[in-house]
Amino acid sequence: MSIKLFRYATFLSATTALVSIAAMDTKAITPTGSCSVVSNSATCSSGSQGSVSVSPGFTATVTVNDGATIDDFQVNELGTNSTFTAGTNSSLTMPSDFALVSSTGSGNTYTINSGASLTSQGNVFLFTPSSSSTENTLTNNGTLTSNSSTKPVIDSNSDKELTINNQGTIQQNGGAAYAVQSLGRTTFTNGGSLVGSVLFGSNADEFILESNGTIASFVDAADGSDTFTIGGSTDGSFDQSLIGSTSTYRNFEIYSKNGSSTWTLTGTGSNDWQILQGGLTISGSLSGGVSGGTGNEMFSVTGTFSGTANLGDGNDQFTLESTGSVTSSVDGGTGTDTFTLGGNTNGTFDQSQISSSSTFRNFETFTKTGSSTWTLSGTGSNDWTIEQGGLTVSGSLSGNVTGSSGSETFTISGAFSGTAAMGDGDDRIVLVSGATHVGILRGGGGTDTLELQANSNTTINMDNELGVEEFELTEKTGSAMLTLTGSDGNLDGGALTVREGTLRVNGTLFNGSVTVASGAFLDGIGQVAALTNSGTVAPGNSIGTLTTSGNFVQNSDGVLEIEISPSAADKLQVTGSASLAGTLKVIPESGTYVAGTEYTILSADGGVSGTFDTTTVEDESNLGGLSVSPQVTADSVTLVLSGDGAISAAASEGQQQEQNTETAETTNRTLTRTTSRTFTTRISNVFRSLRVPGVTITPGGPASPGTPTLGAPVPESTLPTESATGLAAGDNGDLRGLAVWTDTSFSFLDDDQTGSAFSGWVSSNLIGLDTILLDDRLVVGGAIGIDYAEVALESVDGASSMIGGSVSAYAGYQVTDQITVDGLLSYGRAHTETEQRVNGTRVSGTYPSNRYTAATNLTLIQPIEVADDTPLENLEVAGTVGYLHSLETFDPYTGSDGARVGLRSTHYGTARLTGEVSTIIGGHVVPYVTAGVEHDLFNRSGGSGRTGGTAGGGIVAYLETGITMGALYNASFGRGEESQHQFGANIRYSF
């Protein structure tokens, strides 16, 4: 057997052990440099040179030790069934243009371990097998680099098979046309980095892309029936636009999904896909077909699928998400196939799409997964399993519904004639008003809830309409009334909570306790078990008796509502004990009442403890001047009518709270609006004056050369912005020093709304001082104020007067020549004297209060040239958008009737948008008009929704250098029946 001579010198490394080589091996394998041979195995360690030459067709094993570095390395003509291994972190270099590893045989295995680096000026691997059809296999976990301008990194120039598994890097640095060129039948798996292009031959080749694989150029499958596969065990995403004759993946005829991973197709495509293993998801758009294999594959649509799918043999799964659209058909094929509604976004599904001739065919199992809630419309008869999230039947379903071990929700808003068994977990079944069901609703294990949702008034006869088992909790939700009749023998719902709306019990609830939550309502003439009230309990449908077979507990936020007539009253009959707190609300019907009449409104066999915190009377005029007071005994509560006009100190306190808070809110709205406008105007116009080029008016002295004198025309861009208080006047002077100003406004208030009518006036007086900093871009200042108010509350024959003071700090920043922003913080302290009629008696008192105000605004000013030499020559349009918020707190006080009154805080917040148009007449008189809209975001302890308009105008006169005076009128309207008229005047002097 001949030996191919090698062009490198042959020598033995001093670090290499002596090797005993059999005669046949010696002839077959020739080592040089750092390589040695034992039997038919060559081992290479570090050295400046290492070479192995193998006789053609001879089987050899060549191993490069871990960490070895060889600067001049080559393996030449590996024979059939040989093995080549580059050790971990080894470094091999072939400086000439020959192949670093060449092979004339086949059936060889090449392994490049992690961290190994193989670099050549020619081919790194050259395959030229000529005799056997057995494939060669190359596994790369390291880095293969060619610096050749003509030769690929990997070159297989015969028609034999080659398998490449690249999990490392294959890199063509020399500019050659291809990084990999394989003319035989090739299977190329890329889970690493491929820098350069790939060219296949005319065979049936396959390129497999794994989720971590990257390609810097393209893969050309050339001729033949070639397959592009996305695979591996790690999920990935593939953009279909990468497939095309000029794109990344070219000239492929077959497209498949393999491996246990799930791949998502993005973008738009029209190719047919085979799912051989794992899953395929369409999140973009696919008009091609989809076929399954013989295993258990998964196919999902979250985008648009307009092709036809047949999942074939096996137990396959198809998943549709709410964003998905299927316009043709999906066939589960043979096996036990699953149709799934999934995802995390709620959706609606028409059950008529499931049939042997409709969109979704040949599915045997139906599930709901993901955190979403899907609604089943139309008519269906399939059994469903809720594995996650929720399922709602809005159409008709005759199949059964089964839960899993999690916490799922099943809602019936249409017709359900199957059995629902929710299984383990804390599950919920929601029965919506108008829905029908036949069969059993079973909660199963865990803490399960039956929700009775009344969105319209509904009656349920518990004797024959509910088959409910194994629920620990029942909730009434929805704003409408739910009426229960019969008894709850078929309602095994555990403890019941009324969370929203009204529950009317005209039957018997004896299987669990009842809790009325805050804001909810319970009434009726039936019987409940133990009852806890944090909302409102109103015995009777009109006047009647409600019975509780256990204890009754009313919390401090609860209300017991009792309706009375001249001859009868509601009653709560308690077979256990009663614990009282909160409010007793009495509603007298119209009629003639007699002093001394007594009504028993509560009796408790187990005794009564506590008392009501407050007693209120609705439509008190129906009593004809009589008063009503509760009398609590050991086992009952009685209402007594009397003519002494005194309900209780608690009632007096509550009425004074309401009336005084209304007065405070009225003055608070006016003062905060006025204060915010004042400071916004002040800041905006300081900046406006400084924008005038070449104009400087020196107070107290002659005008500077080239500047206006007294009576001279005011330059453009010096007009006021939002002159709601007149403080815009005179800001055309030099304001780089200090400026002092004062502003007085007087507002008349009126509200004709029935039940809360008032009228009065509010006066605000401010004195301020400010300066400008940071190259004329920042204004800072402060002010003190004195406020007065007189308000008459006509509906309650009451009046109050207020005097107070305030201290404020403000600042503004000029963003551009036309845009400014500003902010205000203010604190005020006031004392109010009040007098009002409470239950026929005039009660007076004095209380202090604290007001905290914050505001911010954005102002835009735009001069407009309309017509020269006319009053419109200096026309200017301005706009302000802002928000202000005020909180007023009150110290408690003792009224003249002895009641201790603690007023609740009042909030006021408004967003506003104001526009202004102004001009100059005669050079020193500036008229202007304003209009705007304001929306109350907060008022009266959190209420909202009032919107009103503002309109006004005024005039400003420039009397002499540095001194300006102004007058104005402003009106607010549209807040219900409330209106405000404001008059103001001001004067300002700049030092």
Oligomeric state of this protein = single chain
- Our Rg estimate from Cα atoms comes to 45 Å
List unreliable stretches of 5+ residues. 1-26, 644-655, 691-735, 940-944
SS-based structural class? Answer: mainly beta
Q: Would you tell me the overall average pLDDT?
A: 84
Give the N-to-C terminal Cα separation.
Answer: 114 Å
Give a short account of the largest sheet. Answer: 16 strands, mixed
Helix content: under 10%
Count of distinct strands: 94
Give the overall silhouette. flat
Give an overview in words.
The protein is mainly beta and about 1000 residues long. About 5% of the residues lie in helices and about 50% in strands. The chain is built from two helices and 94 strands. It has a 16-stranded mixed sheet with strand order 2-3-5-8-11-14-17-20-23-26-29-32-35-38-41-44, with no helix packed on it. A hairpin with a 4-residue loop joins strand 83 (about 780-795) and strand 84 (about 800-815). It is flat. Mean pLDDT is about 85; it is low at about 1-25, about 645-655, about 690-735 and about 940-945.
List keywords for this structure.
991 residues; mainly beta; 94 strands; disordered N terminus
